[in-house]
Amino acid sequence: MQENSIPGLNKRTTVVILITIFTLLLWSKLSAIFAWGPISASVITYGLYAFYLGYAFYSDNPLLVRLTIFGTVAGILELVTDYYLVDVIHSLVYPGPGAETMVWSSPLYMPFAWSNVLLQLSFLGMMLTSRYGLLRASIFLCIMGGLYIPTYEHFAKEAGWWYYNANTPMLFNAPIYVIIAEAFISVSLPGIIYYSEHRRIRRTFLLGLIEGCWIFIGTWLAYAIIKLF
């Protein structure tokens, strides 16, 4: 499979995605160094989401349109997972209503933050699929997601975005179960996005719902595995 066989997967967009990944990492690092607090999470999240949405339509990129829809639907459903982490197992802690606007147990920006990261990883998953095939792409992204997303978990505590109670094994500021969960989440992305290509947009909504449910299942499963040891 070649890149040009997937509408929207091209070198220009790949460069844009890589630049935004670097920008998000850099912003997270600076937020941690200077302890900018929840406002910095809101700024980068809403700014990046608006950029992706604008770029997708401005460049008429069907892949980014699909990924934005997919990530937004999955991000909204991730609120259930946050509720589980915050109010059920009491692992995740946000600054709360006094520091930021909340929806249920999560900051208002959280669904958009998940949309941004899912878009980034899904695009990379499609790029890897186009070059190495679906199986190897899924393995690569599993490893990449298990390392990439927990990087934000590490920065988040120092930035004042969120933190985890030390009631479970940790690696720096990230619980081991979160690292496993992110790997579970990431391994699903190449197959799901590949399946949505050349299908109606409404299929992307359905797959976003499936991914949102898988985020919860993967998190629950990862936590259950860790609790066995």
UniProtKB/TrEMBL annotation:
Top-rank taxon, per record: Bacteria
Domain DUF6989: start-end pairs: 79-226
Keyword Cell inner membrane: no
Signal peptide start-end: none
Name used for this protein in its record: DUF6989 domain-containing protein
Family annotation (Pfam families): DUF6989
Record keywords: Membrane, Transmembrane, Transmembrane helix
Species, as recorded: Pseudochryseolinea flava
Transmembrane residue ranges: 12-28, 34-55, 67-86, 106-126, 133-150, 170-193, 205-226
